[in-house]
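Query structure, 236 tokens:
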């Protein structure tokens, strides 16, 4: 198994582009480790090499994915997330413990958070909805990426109208968060919930707009009609 990790890492380094590496860094406030490949190129590499690991037991696949997480490189995180996405049907309740640990140990930027939580964790929650309440624990974490994860994990379910009450519960916990990455995360979650029930999200925004950071508010109302946006943005 070690050989495939080394082979993929060598491929990433060989195909890396310095211009892409430099441009990618501009999307992050914090310093990140990045080889310099576009997202489409990373997905292609992930797909190519998944053919060699797809028959492994899920536990062994997770070990490989953790090696990618440990590297700290954005593209390797992307490969881990893509491989896990491809075995969603095999997820079990016990995997929550692994996901919880990975977020604490390895997620240090918004891209890694969104790739993993917006897809895998969101899918897991749809499969095992009894775990949704655990997001409230994440929302109270000292780790800002875990707080963002609490919201972003509900983005995909919220698009389907799922976990409506939980969306608002998480938004209330995160309401006054001082980190803009968290504000954008829960604003995004509310925006997606608004695609299904615009009036419910609008009522939430109007009720809390005096305390809600403007960043979160703007994200939440982004797709609303102009008349609603004007009401929401009007200072009281």
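Result returned for the query:
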């Amino acid at each position: 198994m070690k050989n495939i990790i080394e082979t993929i890492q060598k491929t990433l380094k060989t195909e890396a582009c310095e211009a892409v590496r430099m441009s990618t860094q501009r999307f992050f406030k914090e310093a990140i480790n990045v080889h310099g490949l576009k997202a489409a190129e990373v997905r292609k590499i992930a797909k190519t090499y998944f053919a060699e690991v797809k028959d492994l037991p899920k536990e062994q696949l997770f070990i490989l994915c953790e090696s990618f997480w440990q590297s700290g490189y954005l593209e390797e995180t992307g490969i881990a997330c893509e491989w896990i996405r491809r075995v969603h049907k095999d997820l079990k309740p016990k995997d929550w413990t692994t996901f919880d640990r990975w977020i604490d140990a390895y997620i240090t930027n918004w891209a890694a958070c969104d790739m993993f939580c917006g897809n895998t964790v969101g899918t897991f929650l749809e499969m095992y909805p009894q775990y949704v309440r655990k997001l409230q624990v994440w929302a109270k974490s000292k780790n800002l990426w875990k707080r963002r994860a609490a919201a972003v994990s509900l983005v995909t379910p919220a698009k389907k109208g799922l976990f409506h009450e939980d969306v608002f519960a998480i938004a209330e916990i995160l309401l006054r968060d001082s980190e803009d990455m968290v504000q954008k995360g829960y604003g995004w979650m509310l925006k997606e919930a608004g695609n299904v029930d615009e009036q419910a999200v609008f009522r939430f925004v109007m009720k809390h707009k005096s305390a809600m950071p403007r960043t979160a508010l703007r994200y939440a109302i982004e797709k609303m009609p102009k008349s609603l946006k004007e009401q929401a943005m009007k200072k009281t």
